[in-house]
Amino acid sequence: VQLQASGGGLVQAGGSLRLSCAASGGTFSLSSMAWFRQAPGKERGNVASISRSGITYYSDAVKGRFTISRDNAKNTMYLQMNNMSPEDTAIYYCAANSAPARPFEYWGQGTQVTVSS
User: What share of the chain is helix, strand, coil (3-state, %, to 5)?
Assistant: First the structure.
């Protein structure tokens, strides 16, 4: 399975961005998908995740501002980011696993998101 993240860029505080993660190769085996992010000098952390049936999880830092979704027919996952702040600046990675509760074994290459104040 290959994951390709896109949609990052530079946005002003209060603005919005939409990230996409396209999956290819063996996508029938995908279970949960997720977005992680890593800011300079910080550990990578889970931002949001979504099960194959659509059950979602959000970290407290993004709850109410970010929305995760997926289109199983298109093998694509999205992250709509609204009301962004400089604290959201990071490299965003998409990930997927092949069964519920398993570690995420598939990772995309990352896309840079920068929020200016």
Answer: 5, 50, 45
